[in-house]
Amino acid sequence: MAYKEKAIASEQVDGSFKDQFKRIYDYANELLARNPRSTMKVKVEDGGSGPIFKRFYCCLKACKDNFVSCRPIIGLDGAFLKGRYGGELLTVVGRDANDQMLPLAYAVVEVENKDTWKWFLELLVEDLGGEEVSSSFTLMSDQQKLKRLMWKAASATQPQAWELEMRNIKQLNDEAFKYLLKIPPSWSAEKLFEVRHVSQAGDRFVVNLDEHSCTCRKWAISGVPCCHSLTAMKFLNLQREEFIPCCFRKTTHEETYTPIVYPINGQNMWEITPYVDVLPPPKRIMPGRPKKKRRLEQWELVKDDNRMTKGGIKKRCAICKQLGHNKTSCTQSTEPMMSSTNEDEVAL
């Protein structure tokens, strides 16, 4: 009863789902009217009583212009829509000069699979300048379980660390290992290094300011000069700002947010388009009892016990000396747990 009353109250405040699906074309037209040269795509399928909503794509003109000043990195992600008719929300974001997320485009699809992602990315590539421009972009996604291992291998600063992470990837997925092997790693430059600097720890690193490289590999990975290269610049009286990429500068950050996303009017002021009213998609009823919680990844199942004692000290096991648990729950304990019930007291 409470669920039905909540649904009735929500419909009176937010409106009916069916009425909003009917005006999906009016909504896209209003976005185009307020933000010209944007891209809106509405995909429907034929139904017995009219067109049925299937997918919606939106990429605003300001977002296209903003991405010109960003780094060529694109992040992909998807999320469940918890409305009455469900669905999936696919999003694409970039990274600005301040290393913050910049929305580029989004799409509402029926389900997250290979076909919907292909449809979404094909439209995105067309909006960002075509295949010739988009071929230099780097895509990041959490849809692959090998993401963490791949980034460990990509950010490895020494060949030995890279080989270790590649062996871990091979054990988990041999196809991914073969794919990554096609990308040849580069570890050193062919030219003679001109500037040398010894760190406080005694490790020697070689800096080549002409090629913007250092053997610690931090400059090549992050794009920001490392402490060894900064020392070399200071020794040669060079301006450090000249070695900073344009995407990290303040002027670039200001240019990124110069285009404006204009808000739209209320529904009562939308222009009525000549398209047929769109019907909401059918509800997808899965077999079995409905799940209320999403499926957790393997790394999310690990319990993070940060509880402390009264003195503000984390628990430490007396057996394995690790933090986060005590000897009662230690997996390395070889002593059997003693029962609190005395055998003599057990009734025969």
UniProtKB/TrEMBL annotation:
Domain of life of the source: Eukaryota
PANTHER family noted in UniProt: MUTATOR TRANSPOSASE MUDRA PROTEIN, POLYPROTEIN, PUTATIVE-RELATED
Gene name per UniProt: LOC106770102
Composition bias, Polar residues: 328-341
An example molecular function term from Gene Ontology annotations: zinc ion binding
Region forming the signal peptide: none
Protein name, UniProt field: Uncharacterized protein LOC106770102
Any Pfam family the entry gives: MULE
Keywords, in A-Z order: Metal-binding, Zinc, Zinc-finger
Species this chain originates from: Vigna radiata var. radiata (Mung bean)
Residues covered by region (Disordered): 328-348
